[in-house]
Amino acid sequence: MDASNIKVELFDGDLPVEQITNAWYDQFRLSNYGAIITFVGVVRDEDGIDGLSFDIYEPILNSWFDAWQKKANEKNAIVLMAHSRGDVLNHTSSYIAAVCSPKRRVALEMIDEFVEDFKASAPIWKYDIINGSREYAEDRSTAISGAGLLN
Known about the structure:
By secondary structure, the protein is of the alpha+beta class. It contains three helices and seven strands. It has a single domain, classed as Alpha-Beta Complex (Aldehyde Oxidoreductase, domain 3), CATH 3.90.1170.40. 30% of the residues lie in helices and 33% in strands. Strands 1, 2, 3, 4, 5, 6 and 7 form a seven-stranded mixed sheet that branches. It is globular, with a radius of gyration of 16 Å. The termini are far apart.
């Protein structure tokens, strides 16, 4: 499998979970991976929000993802990822990640590391949707290393 062809999949609005996960399964089940582990993130109904909205800086996201793909390849694994742009209402998905690996232990450990690093490092800005307006979710956002506002 040429992992350099695997890219982040971006969708406008909520993710078609079954379509994405089934396509990944169909694409990689014959590649001799003993484990295909997925993580599906679902927008929770909390704090009076109607959903979340996302802005993405794709060049940095793609660079971050490519570095993870290289790390996965060193363990004979691959990583997969889909994320939403724009509005995603409560109880729908904005994020799906997967790791395919010949060995389950590698996939189990890597999916945890990948999801946690995504939350800490991916250049995706999150907004709460409240009464049809987008409000920056600063209290649930993580600053990206080296990022800041210019004065």
